[in-house]
Amino acid sequence: MRHASAFVLGAVALAACDAPRPDQPQLWTLFDVQQLYADGAPDAIATDAGLPGGVPLSSMLDPNAPHTALTIAPGWAEGYPVGYATTEVWTRFDEVWAQPVYIPVSGWSGGMPQNQSPKPIFSVGPNSLFYSPYWQMIYVEVPDGRAKSAREILDGKYPLHPSRGWMAALTPQDVGLGAPPAMPTPGTPAMGTGWLDGASIPFVKFPAASVGIGADAVVEEVPIFHFVFVKDDGTWAAPAIPTVLGTGPLYSNTLPPTDAAGVPTGAYSAYWRVYVVVVPFTARVFAPPGSPTAQALQDVPSVAATMYGDILSTATEAELNERYGRVVLDEKCLTTVADSKPGFGGCRYLDSQLAIEAAVPKNLIVRTDVTVTCPLVTVKGNPVP
Amino acid sequence: MTARWLRPFVLVAPLLIASAARAQEAEPEPINDSEGYTPPPESATPLSINGYVDVGFAKAQGDGTSFAPTDTRVPLDYGVDGFAPAVNARGDAASTDPGPGRVVNGFLPRSAGIGGRPSFLLNTLNVDFKYTSAAAPLMVFSRVQFLPRFFGQSQSVDGGDGTRVVVEQAFGRLVPFDSQELALSVGKFDSVFGIEYLDNQANIRTGVTPSLIARYTTGQSIGAKLFYRLQIAPIASALSLNVAVTNSGTFIEVLQPPDANLTGAPVASGRLGYELNASALQAKLGASAMVGPRNDQPERSAQQRAYGADLRIAVAGIYLNAEYVRVDQGQGGPKTTSVGTYPFASAFWARGGYVQLAYALALDAGPLRKLTLYGRYDHRHAWFEGYTPITVDRITGGLRLDLWDAVILKGEYLVNRELEGAPIVDNNVFTSSLVYSW
Fold this sequence. Notes:
The complex is a heterodimer.
Chain A: H1 2-15, E1 26-28, H2 30-39, E2 44-45, E3 55-56, E4 69-70, E5 73-77, E6 80-84, E7 88-91, E8 99-105, E9 107-109, E10 112-114, E11 121-122, E12 134-141, H3 150-156, E13 160-170, E14 176-177, E15 190-196, E16 199-205, E17 222-230, E18 236-237, E19 243-245, E20 271-278, E21 284-285, H4 292-296, H5 311-314, H6 317-323, E22 327-328, H7 353-359, E23 365-373, E24 376-379, E25 382-383
Parallel strand pairs in A: 4-14, 5-19, 8-12, 11-15, 17-20
Antiparallel strand pairs in A: 1-7, 2-3, 5-6, 6-24, 7-23, 8-11, 9-10, 12-13, 13-16, 15-16, 17-18, 17-19, 20-23, 21-22, 24-25
Chain B: H1 7-18, E1 47-60, E2 119-132, E3 138-147, E4 164-174, E5 181-189, H2 214-217, E6 221-232, E7 237-246, E8 267-277, E9 281-293, E10 303-315, E11 318-329, E12 335-337, E13 340-342, E14 348-365, E15 368-384, E16 390-403, E17 407-420, E18 429-437
Antiparallel strand pairs in B: 1-2, 1-18, 2-3, 3-4, 4-5, 5-6, 6-7, 7-8, 8-9, 9-10, 10-11, 11-14, 12-13, 14-15, 15-16, 16-17, 17-18
């Protein structure tokens, strides 16, 4: 008996010792970010998943607005300037899943939905780790307003017509795109209200965003590149300079989305895996003193370019804006406006996936445990078509 | 259609009742308050081998699952009760196959793999070994079960043969004091939570299938257990305490693996009970609790708690069993169960219970020794964090015939209803069980 008791006590005592704790998957939605603002919490999330500094709250909801306006962040896609919003951040998710959303329609004719309701019926809410803003659109032939939950749709055995993927982030009341860019026109990002388990739920939709849904409803991810610089003490710095949006899996040479005429469109993926790109030591950022980008480099001023030739004295404001924040592989090319013109001059900018893959060794393109929803809202300064 | 399977039982019941030749008698006192069903300790030989064979025949509606055919939510098992279409005493569902392209997250029972087709099943071949030492107050018990299963050509789960051999119990029990009902068990043993674990085995259970809350309270696990009972003879009563520290607590193995501790910290569970053992009336009341890290993930901070209350009354051949349980689980890390790994263990809450009423009529009609009619009502409300809460219930009715002392024939019909949240599906079940004991 004594031996048995000792065995039990020993087991319990050993169990009380601390063991290493693995990290949990986490998801932050706009609901969470608004709450973090309200709580006065630290100004960044996802700080422990491989992305130096994490994701600033200000990159999701504009701190200058009453936390209701989506921030539009700058980036490069195939060398073009783009603007994108960030609506969700995941850490340690190997995959996220598309959920069904039901769009009531009055009928189905010629393979097309008739009288589409503006109030979609969502199936999973933002408090679940299985929530994602990527939806498998399913048209359902049901009178508008008769069904307000996924259960009612399934129980009603109404005719269902699965369709394409769709991106719409569920949001707290009043959260949406601020101004600029304000583009409440058909086909562009817009706010709306749908149903979730019988209750009204606001959303902001991004119809142009491409949603690739693979086997088992897994959403296809595409790389988004964040630049980091190695400081003199060996640590990394991740200044707030524009990111680079990829086109497909690493080294896949996936073509960018274009329209029928070959013009770039905003139909990029909205689901991104963050990769950090450790910038080659020769690379510099186009950030003349006093420029908006120079402010972003205050922690690592040494990575700002110092050679600008006659660019600063001869370039127009538009030409300067076209260059601010770009990472150039070797600043010696920054001599004239013509020579430094992105895409045409002699400068090699790291402003596309292809350029990064060509110029940066593989071991310096590092996958993080951070994935984000970042739908494009502008391309070349214009609203996404 | 399924009602056809009930006809033989409906027809035979009045005949058997009419032939009753002797008065009813009280059902024997369960002998397993401490460690689940085990043979009595007064065996003539140090080593005894007992067991049973449970052969079933079952037919479930639909495809044998609780999944609505057009439901594509992820994960599918969060929005329905996959345990509802149970077909045997182990709680195996007729099917758990979500079908191609649909995703589940490990909140499902084991599957009998029969889908919606009527099928014979060899539910369990159970072999018990018990050794009682002559030189020490020690009993060693092991229960090995053979579970033949076949999963056919499913596209979404591993097909083919799924037969398993399970060491369901293996423990040593010390009874150090002759004068005290005090026992310390170490090894793998039954739950100590509530009362339904007492009916885990097909040769003990009144009906065929477990309740809708059995998944939380009836699992075996590995650890140590202390049982103490204090008899209060003047009032024909007793107080008992049954406490355990184990790897996985009291959830069934398919939800939380019992054979390894994934967090490094034990789960504590226990039941405090009162018994009234009067000649005309036996009553038992109990309160149970479980607390500790959930053992389907590696985070110690992901705690689970369960509280329960139970009641049993036996009087004049009528047996009333009732139990209520409340379960709260925090969010954990990557999920690992006995059937696979999943993205994460979501926070989860459940409240549920059942009431079972049985009437046993003792008979002396040829081989027929006893006839028992029983019914049970189950109710369960549960929800995963952020997911639509579901409320389901179940109405079970059945008949049990005890033949000689070694054969039990049971048949029952389960009416599963989705009351809220979960889509309504055809998942009622007829199931039966023929149990041979030795």
